[in-house]
Amino acid sequence: RKEPWMSVDLGAGRQFVPNRYTLRHGGHANEPPLRDWVLEGSNDEGEWHVLRQHDDDHALKGEYATASWDVTASNAYRFFRIKATNPRPVQLSIGGFELYGKLLAME
Predict the structure, then answer these.
(1) 56-77 burial code (b ≥16 CB/10 A, e <16)
(2) How far apart are the first and last CA of the chain?
(3) CA quadruple 26, 31, 37, 40: dihedral positive or negative?
(4) Are 100 and 21 in contact (CB under 8 A)?
């Protein structure tokens, strides 16, 4: 089975070294927020590297809740994705995604 996911492409010539990120739950109370997921980075959309793993994380509480987490990344990436890892069916409902760190412009 494929887990639901969403990704962001920073565009050709740009890479980013994240040190923190924020998610906002994108749904009402009847839409369950994420509890089990990973933040991943890639430079080719084929090989993904786990930057932070969340297991039974209850930080996103309530309608449109927002939470932030630190990230330890030693590499820069062009692509980032949030992928649900829960074994039960889950709807990926994200209302906001922010990355903090250092943007690198490649020539």
Answers:
(1) ebeebeeeebebeeebebeebb
(2) 39
(3) negative
(4) yes
Contacts of 97 (CB under 8 A, 6+ apart): 6, 8, 21, 22, 23, 24, 82
Sign of CA dihedral 86, 91, 95, 100: positive
| Predicted TM-score of the model (pTM) | 0.91
Report yes or no: 26 and 64 within 8 Å, Cβ to Cβ: yes
Give the pLDDT of residue 91.
Answer: 74
**69 strand-pairing partners:** 21
pLDDT in tens, 20-68: 999 998 876 677 788 999 999 999 999 999 999 999 999 998 888 999 9
